[in-house]
Amino acid sequence: MSRSSTIDLEASTVQSYPFTERKSEKKNGQVEVDQAQPANVEDRPRTDGKVVDAVWGTIDEDGPNYRNLGWIRASVLELKTQIGLGVLGLPAVLDTLGFIPGIIVIVVLAIIITWSDLVVGYFKLKHPEVYTVADAAHIMFGPVGREIIGFAFWLEVVAIAGASFLSISVAFNTITEHATCTVVWVVVGAIIVAFFASIQTLGRISWLGWVGLVSILSAVITLMVAAGLTDRPSLAPVGEPFTIITKVAATPTFVDAINAVSIVVFAYAGTPNFFNIVGEMKDPAQYSKSVVAAQTFITMIYLVVGCVTYHFVGQYIASPALGSAGFIVKKVCYGLALPGLVVGGTLYAHTAAKYVFVRVLRNSRHLAKNTPVHYMVWYGCVVFTCGIGFVIAEAIPFFNDLLSLIGALLGTLICIQMESYMWMWDNWTSASRGTRRWTLLMIMNLSYFIIGWFLMVAGTYAAVVTINNNFKSGDVGSSFSCADNSGN
């Protein structure tokens, strides 16, 4: 493992500043980089008043400003990349695991993935040329690693965008009482998301983060209040006596338990977007502050929403959870949540499209300039991303099962294993090697790495078994079906 990296001057003329101050020695047309501490953002060197960035090149008025994100707006984007689809699956997690085990799982995974999110910032400051997790993989594993991890990253964020299309179709079916074929609603959701995802920079999208955050929070607060006031949850038997059952600790099967854990992983699986967020911040040194604020707030929301909803609805949890508190309330909740569902899909579709866009145009003058090639490639990436997301949403049209599969197969790899290995790789030869702090952090990251692999293998197996059983049972809809998926 090595802490140094090289930048080929013939491949790119951009400088690594403003992220770090570095000492360099020119050797054979390359710059051998000595990693140093983050530089003061106010001391950025400029070329004729223009900001020079390690990813975007020269940023000036002749193109979009890809470095205009403050830490508060970054925190809002971090919140919105996570709170949305994930929170709608958490009451079902508590129903599967019980109150105490469910809360423990949520808190433990919050700690693990918060650490992963922080590692993203540490790695970015040491390696300013990184914009996505695939760039980090390239540094550690070379071109082959970049392709494998890059594809896994892209597939994860596209799949989450696809899950948002599915949830948007549920919302439209609920509000309109299934006015048209469900596939049409999925297409409508994909088109709306593609329109907003085509906004070129996260700085310009950040206002949507506020809209989405208010939308989802208002919907889940309405759900909690209504669940406490309703006499009959939506899924409770009509005209028959029923009893709401909640469990302190449940006894699920292995498959059900691992699926529930995978849904929690999905709820925190915004880490891939965090690479893009820190890459577009004005001052990446403030990234850690944004992460701590966002993760603390979102964990509190998850615990409150999950526990309150499960307490009042019990085993009659709908999927997604917004449909749990009665038919009229369900319409209200989905009406409130619809903008948030669109924004959530927008952020993931934007991230997936941006990955392909940067990969195609990196080291080209078209990357940060308003040229015809710039626009054609960008809009083409957005349309392609949303098209693949649509196919995923229609191929696996079961909300909780899709969340479990994404969380297990892709969420663990990109949100746990990669970041824990990134820390170990970056610190293996550090000056603090052998100290108590270094040893404890190394043990912690190695433990997270092993936990991630276990959850990935076991969770993928459990998700596949469940999806297969659902298809065979005939109790759920089929792929590319016009059937109503709102549970009305």
Topology summary:
Blueprint lengths: L4 E4 L14 E5 L2 E5 L11 E2 L2 E4 L3 E3 L11 H12 L7 H8 L1 H28 L6 H44 L5 H16 L4 H28 L24 H14 L3 H9 L7 H27 L13 H35 L10 H24 L3 H29 L8 H38 L15
Antiparallel strand pairs: 1-3, 2-3, 4-5, 5-6
Can you describe what's shown?
Belongs to the amino acid/polyamine transporter 2 family. Residues 18-47 are annotated as: Disordered. With 488 residues, this protein is mainly alpha-helical. The protein has one domain: Hydantoin permease (Orthogonal Bundle), CATH 1.10.4160. 64% of the residues lie in helices and 5% in strands. The chain has 13 helices and six strands. The protein has helices spanning 71-82, 90-97, 99-126, 133-176, 182-197, 202-229, 254-267, 271-279, 287-313, 327-361, 372-395, 399-427, 436-473; strands at residues 5-8, 23-27, 30-34, 46-47, 50-53, 57-59. The strands form two sheets. A three-stranded antiparallel β-sheet has the order 1-3-2, with no helix packed on it. Strands 4-5-6 form a three-stranded antiparallel β-sheet, with no helix packed on it. Helix 6 (202-229) packs parallel to helix 9, helix 7 (254-267) packs across helix 13 (436-473) and helix 12 packs antiparallel against helix 13.
